[in-house]
Amino acid sequence: MSDATVNAPLPRQVADAHVDALVELDPILGTHLGLPESSGRLPDFSPTGQEEQADLCRTTLERLAEAEKRPGGDSDVERRCARLLRERLTAELAVHEAGEGLRTVSNLRSPLHSVRGVFTLMPTEGDEDWAAVARRLRAVPAALAGYRGALEAGLAGGLPAGPRQVETVVGQLDAWIAGDGGRGWFAEFTDDGPRALRSELDGAAATATDALARLRDWLRDTYAPALHGAPDTVGRERYRRWARYWNGTDLDLEEAYAYGWEEYHRVHAEMRAEAEKVLPGAADPWAALRRLDTHGRAVEGVEETRRWLQELMDEAIEKLDGTHFELAEPIRRVESMIAPPGGAAAPYYTKPSLDFSRPGRTWLPTMGQTRFPVYDLVTTWYHEGVPGHHLQLAQWTYVADRLSRYQTTVGSVSANAEGWALYAERLMDELGFLHDAELRLGYLDAQMMRSTRVIVDIGMHLGLEIPDHSPFHPGERWNPRLAQEFFGLHSGRPADFVESELVRYLGMPGQAIGYKLGERAWLKGREAARAAHGDAFDAKRWHMEALSLGSLGLDDLVAELSAL
Asked: CB of 484 within 8 A of CB of 499?
């Protein structure tokens, strides 16, 4: 063994060095991690900037190969980190080398959304914080120019985005440019800034808003007309690549599609039983849900709903801590927030900073509503907050020093996290928290949504045939129009939510299937561990050890959970 190999860093050290280097290229990541030195900058989204990140991935993979040869590089903790790092960087490079970064237009996840979203995570306690906000606002034009340059390169290379994505994003930009009061979202965001920086903040916000307007005009007047009837779906080759990226495994897509239908029929039968308790003789479960929309329990008022959700999460922590989980003090803090307008319709969660100075937060998009039915809020906040995303992602942050920052931050696999959150909804049902037909029907509606996601996401992107056992258009082939109709018929959510969801699936192929497939992996792992331990199985111990593994792709998740 050479001296170079003996002195090489271990895989966890390679992984954390990758995070440090990536933060230099991606200051938005630095803000997510809570690093103040990142706060005044934005990334280079141009083709050159994208290639720099790809070069970093290649360099890290070379360093990882040496690290695995070093004595100690094959221990369990190093092995898990190395497998994740290799899988994630390989998946990222596959996406990059296919030119996907040159066609990234989405209603939920794109450089454009990262630029706006990062401001909601920045500290705003004093003049220094607000000065960093102003510097970052001044950086918006260059960042969006780089993004536009990537899209221009994609067009030139025959890599267009989906027309429906572009149309939706233009509408989102309209909302951001106008804002609630007609002054623009950035101007409204800076309203709370200090008087001493008022002129600088106003000017910086105007600069950022002008950059949004120029991008909006270019997307609407130049990019959209140049798409020449480009498809909104991606086809099998691109779908497989993206499914690997989001799920951390090479899926058998036909098997996953069949599983989606199995879950559809199972959940539908349960929904019918609960709907009969809510509205006897209901034509279908969604008739009962429509009844609950108008006559069920609800919270009135946006701020009242934010407070109600905070109380729901605080109550869940009090009842679960010490019985089903052991929560460190920083994890017991989570904040309920109202999402800024103009985004997608789905609620979401943002992780705490590495030092927990910024807590984990749940975000409710109101979509103009002021009345929120309880049947939907409860299960959704068990998913987004406690015991869902918050308990997992905050625990990862808490144990980052024992694992690696990579495993607990940028190495996150969507299907692992979304699978846990859906498992968390089921766990709360198992524990009796969904104690009446109204709440159970809301939970089952959420389960149905995740089942239909598997069906329509795979079905429309691959153009699969609708099976004979389907109650909807059997024998026809999926397309976005049929997918939206099917999703709407099997959801208790309003039409604008259904529209937003379909656009999301078209723009993020392979992501939406990870909820159900990830939940299946978590359930398989739990059942295998329970079978191995028998009566000695300790669910609280298993939950905390499982949540302390850090990120894993679905390739590894079942095996690691089963061994706990």
From this structure: yes
* Cβ neighbours around 11 below 10 Å, total: 30
Beta-bridge mates of residue 337: 363
Residue 372 β-bridge partners: 299
Coil, strand or helix: which one is 15?
helix
Which residue's structure tokens are 């978590």?
522
What does the alpha-carbon distance between residue 527 and residue 522 come to, in Å, rounded to a whole number? 9
Q: Pairing mode, if any, of strands 334-338 and 360-364? A: parallel
Give the span between the Cα atoms of 243 and 511, in whole angstroms.
Answer: 7
Least confident of 5-14, 121-130, 257-266, 298-307: 5-14
pLDDT value of position 4:
52
The chain-wide mean pLDDT, for the chain, equals 95
* 361-389: average pLDDT: 96
The C-alpha angle 395, 399, 402, rounded to 5 degrees, equals 160
Confidence of residue 504 (pLDDT cuts 50, 70, 90): very high
Q: What is the 3-state secondary structure (H, E, C) of 295-352?
A: HCCEEECHHHHHHHHHHHHHHHHHHHECCCECCCHHHHCEEEEECCCCCCCCCEEECC
Q: What 3-state DSSP class applies to 436?
A: coil
Residue 492, pLDDT score = 79
31, 34, 38, 42 alpha-carbon torsion, rounded to 10°: 0
């499982």: which residue's tokens? 546
Question: Is 486 within 8 Å of 238 (Cβ atoms)?
Answer: no
pLDDT band of residue 298 (cuts 50, 70, 90) is very high
Place of tokens 């609280």: 540
What is the token pair recorded at 210? Answer: 């002008």
pLDDT-derived band at 5 (thresholds 50, 70, 90) equals low
- What's the length of the chain? 564
Task: Show the tokens assigned to 480.
Answer: 């976005």
Count of alpha carbons within 13 Å of 215, Cβ hemisphere only? 32
Token pair of 295 as six digits? 């006559």
Cβ 319 vs Cβ 308: under 8 Å: no
The candidate with the shortest Cα–Cα distance to 340, out of 147, 187, 210, is 187
Which residue reads 């083709």 in tokens? 47
Cβ atoms of residues 494 and 516 within 8 Å = no
Residue 157 identity: G
* Nearest one of 135, 438, 156 to 285, comparing CA atoms: 438
388-423 residue pLDDT tens = 999 999 999 999 989 999 999 999 999 999 999 999
Q: Decide: 239 and 459 in contact? Cβ < 8 Å.
A: no
Please spell the DSSP secondary structure of 222-258, one letter per residue.
IIGGGGTT--SS-HHHHHHHHHHHHHSS---HHHHHH
Q: What are the CA-CA distances from residue 469 to residues 264, 285, 455, 457 (Å)?
A: 11, 19, 13, 19
